[in-house]
What does this fold into?
Amino acid sequence: MTKTIRGSCLCGGIRFEIVGKVGPAGQCHCSKCRKVSGTDGNAVFYAPAAGFRWLAGEELIERFTVPDGKGWASHFCRRCGSPTPLGDANGKFFFVPAGLLDDDPGFRGYTAHIFAASKAPWVCIADSAPQYEAGFDSARIDGA
Ligand SMILES: [Zn+2]
Ligand SMILES: [Zn+2]
It folds into this structure.
């Protein structure tokens, strides 16, 4: 039987489900993800678009494009402010904020920390996942 996991925003207006294997999750420490989450970054994982389905509330999704952010935009629920899943430009994946999940995705911890070079000064990365200066294709900065 194929595993299905569900997720939702804070108000429950936006709901989705993912069929099949998901994750693992990475933690992005960039300044934009910090602003969007109000915390130390953004725990996010990829889900194949073929297994992703909106169940409700797609019309509640609002978009904010960061001025001079090279197209970077946040997507969130207009009613409660939760960040929402976002499809990639090629329609292959969805980027899913891990905190939205209502079910156990199966993975544990992070696979990687990205944009670790721009993490907040008060953040101490305490796990052993590899740390990348910027995106996954950038230099590792954890000495490994
Ligand atoms: Zn909501
Ligand atoms: Zn980020």
